[in-house]
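As a warm-up, study this chain.
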Amino acid sequence: MAKAEASVEELISMIQRGELRLPEMQRRYVWRSTRVRDLMDSLYRGYPSGAILLWDTDEAVPLQDFAVVQSLNPYQSTRLLLDGQQRLTSLSAVIRGEPVTVRGRKRPIELLFNLEHPDGPVVTEVNEEGAEEDEGDEDEELGDVADSSDDELLRRFNEMTFVVATKKLAHLPHWVKVSDVFKTDNPAPFLTRAGISSLSDPLYAKYSQRLAKLRGICKYVYRMDVLERTLSYDEVTEIFVRVNSLGAKLRSSDLALAQITAKWRHSLQSFLKFQADCAKVGFDLELGIHLRNLIAFATGQSRFAVVKNLSVEALQKAWKEAGEGMEFAMNFLKSNAGIESPALLSSPFLMVVIAYFGHVRRYTITPEESALLRYWALIANAKGRYSRGSSETLVDQDIATLRDGGKIQDLIDRLRLQVGILEVSPDELEGRNQRSALFKTMFLAFRAAEAKDWRSNLTISLDHSGAHHRLQFHHIFPKAQLKNSFTSREADDIANLAFIGGKTNRAISDKPPATYLPPLVAQHGAQVFVAQAIPLETDLLAVPNYKAFLTERRKLIAARLNAFLVPTSASPSSDLS
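Now compare it with the structure written out below.
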């Protein structure tokens, strides 16, 4: 293996000219803008950023496109990028000022640079869920919260060097667009915009040096490990899997994809097409879920470790059956359970089990079975069956139950063994927040009760158009009203959250509920609040009585959840408890 070095500028040029390509084994581009922001910050400070792994080859291997535009390379001899795609794609998009293509949609990566950033390092924000990246768009979270004041947000932003662009920040003179800085060596336009017109201004040298340091990212040098031409595609796939396994840089699904595409050449195109087709009907799932579904149909279990033992023929047969199963799962969740988006699932693994159930029943299901399947799916989702403990083990247990002739009641009994009482109790809601599986079920139950926005009277929905109507979750007692007497954890309690549109949320801002609720009740009636299980007793709306409000609302939420979860046309053979 040879060693080499190349600057960011050189690597981006190689991508642009088509001299650096992606093999089919690679996962696609998945970084969110916040990850790109942190990469830029690290390079700006000269921190280490890992190595790049390449393969020089003359072999005609299956390729895929970068997420950024490339020219056609007329030569067969190519360098393939095995490790570093996320970093180099991000840098290419920002430095060239071009959008990235993600799942067929182009989106820009717009970052701003703070000319007035503090000296010294900043604290990196860590994803509490532990995932390296999120493959969804930035704006696809269920109920984006908008309670923070503008002053609080601006204070936080001013402590950072790079931020993901917002319209308000972009208009401030000391914030500049990162891509614009790389288009010119002349600092004058940025200095003039910041109100600096004289060389004697003490900020002239400071800002000029910072702009030059930012442009210096192009000169950052990456170390490259280059695999020899003599290696075969299969050997390189094995190296790719081992390197990424040891470094824990890729998830098991990414490594499985490399092994599958090494056996089944050009299969990635089929996988991506089906993924795109699912996204068109509302289920924009990670490719890893479709691969796990493929393995479940091929082997009767969901673990990727068995990929190496599967033949191409077995993979192709299972992929056809898995697609049919996933289509059934999507249709069932939408039509029978009211779940029209993965944002409403505590884990997409639930879809794999539903898909497998449809398959083993040959998609011939009685009304009683359908009602029980709805009940199991909603309870498993609410209780977070696949988001606690070993998810793979639990999926395998349920698949094995169905594979061996088990009924839906057997799945319900197994769920009861895991979580105990299936009915939701008020105590179970205590201390939960918007990350809880029950939060998603709350939305489903409130929507089933015809919950509406408190001003527009639009029924709450995930897909309303326009910023005014886009769903947000609202703190009934705004955090600003609670901060002096209660902890942030207490303020974020699930019993303090409701679903309303963005304009309504902004109009309420940080007003106490005793001030803003009575006029809304007088204008729109109590039903829109009853639908979201909100107690309206005057004494409960006073800030000192916040904990009493939470206690009462938990009782109302639990009752609403249980009424929603119980099957309508059939019931489990055992008691719900």
